[in-house]
Write a structure and sequence with these properties.
Helix content: 25-40%
Strand order of the largest sheet: 1-2-3-6-7
Order of helices and strands: HEEEEEEEHH
CATH topology: Peptide Deformylase
CATH class: Alpha Beta
Largest sheet: 5 strands, antiparallel
Distance between the termini: 24 Å
Bound molecules: ligand K2U, zinc ion
Shape: globular
Structural class: alpha+beta
């Protein structure tokens, strides 16, 4: 599957809830895992493959594959931390982003079973980055405005060249 790049409007949409967790959703999840692994990602949100629905997959530090369908962040820690983030939709650009250290998320898995997960470390970081994708938020929205403007300009130029 093709990962959409910065500049594609689908990355700025507010994704809609998954109505029914059926075989179509389960096969989409499988394809997203393959795409994520092939892209050396540790997370991938459905809007990044052009599907504006509330679903993302994660493969953080423990290597365990996790699916989050209709996730809700129900708590975040006061303590914040900084981490250098990247994004498969904004290739080759990395920058430090400050976010809460820990997060509690409630979601359904690929079989529709509800679960609640308390995460810290890299898993908490990826969950927050992927959750942002469902809200149409990208990590560059959380860095200094002048740096964000430079990245957007670079991708606009690249897209313009490709369309020629
Ligand atoms: O959502 C994505 O675009 C995948 C992100 C996942 C990520 C979230 C938070 C912090 C770092 C990454 C990355 O592109 S996956 C590639 C990667 C892996 C480890 C560290 C940085 C970038
Ligand atoms: Zn991303």
């Amino acid at each position: 599957m093709e990962v959409v790049r910065l500049g594609n409007d689908v990355l700025r949409d507010h994704a809609v809830p998954v109505e029914e967790i059926n075989d179509e959703i389960r096969s989409l999840v499988e394809e997203m895992f393959d795409t994520m692994v092939k892209s050396d990602g540790i997370g991938l949100a459905a809007p990044q493959i052009g599907r504006s629905i509330r679903l993302f997959v994660v493969r953080a530090d423990d290597g365990v594959k996790r699916v989050f369908i209709n996730p809700q962040i129900i708590a975040t820690s006061q303590e914040m931390c900084s981490y250098e983030e990247g994004c498969l939709s904004i290739p080759k650009y990395y920058d430090d982003v400050i976010r809460p250290e820990r997060v509690t998320v409630q979601a359904r898995n690929e079989n529709g079973r509800r679960f609640t997960l308390e995460a810290d470390g890299l898993l908490a970081r990826v969950i927050q980055h992927e959750y942002d994708h469902l809200e149409g938020i990208l990590f560059i929205d959380r860095i200094a405005p002048e740096k964000k403007a430079k990245v957007e300009e670079k991708f606009r130029k690249k897209a313009a060249k490709e369309t020629v």
